[in-house]
Amino acid sequence: MYRSLIIAPTSLREAVMSQPLMAALARRGEVLTVAATPTVAPVYRAMGRTIAQVYELPFGPGRLDWGLRSVIGRNWRRRYDVAYVLAERWFDALLPWFAGVPRRVGWAGGPLRRRLLNEGLTESAEAPTSCVARFLALAGDESALPQPPVLALQPERVMAACQAQGLQPGGYWAIAPGADEAPARCWPPSRYADLIRQLHERSGLPSVLIGGGKDVALAQHIVAHAAPAPSRSLAGLLTTDAAAALIGGSAGLIGNDNGWMQLGAALGVPQVAVFGPTATDEVQPFAAHVRTLRLAPSAELHCAPCAERACREGHQRCLADLGALQVIDALQSAYPQGGTPSAVAAA
Known about the structure:
Elements: E1 3-7, H1 12-17, H2 19-27, E2 31-36, H3 41-45, E3 53-56, H4 66-75, E4 82-85, H5 94-98, E5 103-107, H6 111-116, E6 119-121, H7 131-137, H8 155-164, E7 173-176, H9 189-203, E8 207-209, H10 216-226, E9 231-233, H11 240-248, E10 253-256, H12 259-266, E11 271-274, H13 280-283, E12 290-293, H14 317-320, H15 324-333
Parallel strand pairs: 1-2, 1-4, 2-3, 4-5, 5-6, 7-8, 7-10, 8-9, 10-11, 11-12
Helix pairs in contact: 2-7, 8-11, 9-10, 9-15
């Protein structure tokens, strides 16, 4: 029986996409302890019995914290047989190095990281490009095929989160308009406001906007311009636990290329993910209840996908040219046949 330490990625998106790796390791008998930041720790708790223990790391965001890492790592000596370093910074590999874990596995990266990992995978033309496949490669099992990430929430958690906000499960739309500090990935606020109005006109359901602290101004702007349709911004006000529960309790999720999109897909929520500059084969959810929407390839728009965080052309047409009705049509097709809610049926 292998005792395995997982150094979790720090982004919500990547934490969700690591679930197939966790499942693969657990299936072959490894007992998994995950060391994660408080932001992504709830993702690993939602993996159920796959994870034996989740340890919340006390490090500041992006901080080296050498002394603290040294203390924690030395306290973990002789506790683990193998460590999988999913986080990408060089100092994310310090904990298992301080702990003296015999096998330290991860993508090699720069020279400092290569010195800390003794089983570093190196980039090559044959290296997988999708995030799910890159994580699975760390298991060293070439027969393991990428599967859609799957998470589960207790129904009582969903009910409690809804009650705390005065909502009914299935009685609202979840909107995630942020894009992890990449403005080029954001569907324009005016489009979101139009979508909220049209969804309300068709269904009578309100919308709830979800995001982190850096999405507060964007979410408030959308709410102001969506009037008179009822909508509310909870951006920056929720823990990851509470946000996940509200997404899980929604009638459906609409968002950009962001971590909330991945979280909703793994929770089984019908959704539309609006893509612009990102190559979808790297990060798009590939579950049956998810629709990824992007502008059809066109000779008039030669720049997409560009993978840039800001639009170098200044027009952001790859997203601006997508309308609310296209999103609603895509959302309607995300529901099982016969299960389409009245919220997306024609008015």
